[in-house]
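// run 5 | inverse folding | seed 20
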C-alpha cells in the first residue's frame, strides 16, 4: 500500500463513519434517529481511530490537509509529498461521503428538510458570524495540531538506555480522544470541520449527487472550514517552532 492509497482509504473510512453517524442521527426513519450530539462527537472520534489504524503504518495517517500542511510548516514532513497527500485526502473524503449517501439513500428520500440532508455532507454554523465561525475552526484545529506535535512514543528506561515501545493500533487512541474532546467542547458553533477535506470533499459530492429535494451546497460558507483549519494549523506549527520540543 502506497502513502497515497493509504490516505485515500483512511480518509474514506473516516468520512464513511463520521458522515454515517450524522446520517444515522438526523435522517428520518433510522435506528439512531435523534441520537444527539454525544453520539455524533463520539462516533467522529472513533472514526478517526479507524482511519488512523488503517492508514497509519503506510502514510502516518494524516487524513487531513491541515495536518499535512501543519507538519510541513513545522519541518516535520517533506513539502514535495504534500500534493500527493492532499490529493489522497480529498479523494478519500469524496468516496466516503458517496458511500454514506448510497447506504442511507432511502432515509435521504424520507427526509424532507434539505438542510438536514446537507448537514450529512458538510458543516454549517449554528449562528452565522464569519469572525466567530472562522475563530472556531482556527481554535479547534490549533488544539488538534499542537497536540499532535507533542505526542510522544511510549518508552521505558533501563541500564541499556531508553527503549521505545510499539503500541500498534493503540497508538491511534490519543488523536481520537483529542478529536472527541474538540467536538464536545468547541464544536457547537460550526460543527468543527477542523479538516478542509472533510468539509470540501463531501460538499462537492452534495452538489453532484442526485439527492432528492436537496438545497444549495452552501458555497458562501464553504471557505471558512477551509481557511480556518489552515490558519489554525499554521499557528500551531509556528508555536511549535518557537517553543521547540
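// decoded
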Amino acid at each position: 500500500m502506497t502513502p497515497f492509497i493509504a490516505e485515500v482509504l483512511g480518509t474514506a473510512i473516516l468520512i464513511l463513519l463520521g458522515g454515517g453517524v450524522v446520517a444515522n442521527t438526523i435522517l428520518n426513519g433510522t435506528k439512531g434517529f435523534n441520537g444527539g450530539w454525544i453520539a455524533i462527537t463520539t462516533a467522529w472520534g472513533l472514526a478517526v481511530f479507524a482511519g488512523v489504524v488503517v492508514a497509519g503504518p503506510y502514510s502516518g495517517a494524516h487524513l487531513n490537509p491541515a495536518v499535512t500542511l501543519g507538519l510541513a510548516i513545522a519541518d516535520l514532513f517533506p513539502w514535495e509529498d504534500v500534493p500527493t497527500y492532499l490529493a489522497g485526502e480529498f479523494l478519500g473524503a469524496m468516496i466516503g461521503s458517496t458511500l454514506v449517501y448510497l447506504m442511507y439513500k432511502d432515509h435521504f428520500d424520507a427526509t424532507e428538510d434539505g438542510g438536514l440532508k446537507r448537514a450529512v455532507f458538510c458543516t454549517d454554523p449554528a449562528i452565522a458570524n464569519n469572525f466567530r465561525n472562522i475563530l472556531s475552526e482556527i481554535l479547534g484545529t490549533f488544539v488538534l495540531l499542537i497536540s499532535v506535535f507533542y505526542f510522544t512514543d511510549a518508552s521505558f528506561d533501563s541500564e541499556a538506555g531508553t527503549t521505545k515501545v510499539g503500541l500498534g493500533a493503540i497508538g491511534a487512541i490519543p488523536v481520537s480522544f483529542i478529536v472527541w474532546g474538540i467536538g464536545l467542547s468547541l464544536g457547537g458553533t460550526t460543527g468543527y470541520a477542523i479538516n478542509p477535506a472533510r468539509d470540501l470533499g463531501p460538499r462537492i459530492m452534495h452538489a453532484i449527487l442526485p439527492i432528492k429535494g436537496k438545497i444549495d451546497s452552501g458555497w458562501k460558507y464553504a471557505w471558512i472550514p477551509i481557511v480556518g483549519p489552515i490558519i489554525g494549523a499554521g499557528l500551531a506549527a509556528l508555536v511549535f517552532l518557537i517553543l521547540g520540543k
